[in-house]
Fold this protein.
Amino acid sequence: MLRKQKDLVGVDVGSYAVKMVQLTEGKAGHRLVNLGMALVPHEAVSEGRIQRPEMVVETLRKLAKNLKIKPGSIAASISGYEVMIKKIEMPTMTEEELGVQLRREIAQYVPYKLDEVNVDYEILDVSKRRAKYMDVLLVAAKKEAVGSYVNMLRTAGFDPAVIDVDYFALSNAFEATYGVFAEENIVLMDIGASKTTMTIVQAGRPLFTRDMTFGGQSITHRIATELGTSEENAERIKLGLGAESADRARLEKAFVETLAEWTTDVKRALDFFFSHFPEAKLHRIFLSGGSARIPGLEKFLEAELGIPSEVCNPLQHIDVDAGRFDPAYLQQIGPQMTIALGLALRRAGDK
């Protein structure tokens, strides 16, 4: 599909904060124009779902005003909670023929009435399992959920030109930063405040996706309980600010116990992956999201899972005006901006 060369602002609405990234494309590649984040009231988003849209609207407006981003076209994404993603095999045919065939057979793959969902698809590759078949990625999202989200963004003054899915925005940002690993299966984990988005990509294609209900808030709660302190102070301690004054044994206990619970959930998801791909090998884990900055997290996961792990900073290969953006700030905030950056890379007219 031909792409209209119109830059979009990437808008990522999380349960902890709203993030915005604005890029422009020049001769040297993508250049950072603007970025920022604003905290969302605790009661506005719960378990990955927006409960108080009016609060999110107000946060979006304030952030756009502070960043001097004018109302206009944006790319946003919906959570995996609202989306069904499935890889299916279909006989080899043209894209037009596939559209007709799927309309006839969609009930086999989507557990909703067809008039209740928006359906999209993409031909991935020739099937490795059966001759004269191809792998197709099928995506279905509830119209009601998408409609409510779009209306909220419009109320805030934006025109949602692209509605993506967190999984794809995550892999899009990773590919722009690190390229495509043709011979490796890469685990991408974006760890937010209350949920974690996982996608496993193979040669730049999504092989497996999963949302898990853990995030940085669980560590904050555990620290607050263990140390008998406020949630605000526990959040600072979690990020290594003022941790030197805390009871080291209790603090370590809070971290280790919570991270062990996270690892159990990750192992369960990976076991499910291996049940479908028994001969696959996972080569590396890249962490992003605000909670990826928890000190020592990548080493803990690497030790428990036996897979090399590191924190992903998607801003490291973006052209930046060092006189305008503090490199230390970009290094610190980078992992949190991964999905927003992946969205900002989209263009109006993209499929």
User: Anything to note?
Assistant: Residues 248-276 form the longest helix (29 residues). The CA atoms of residues 118 and 286 lie 30 Å apart. The mean pLDDT is 88.
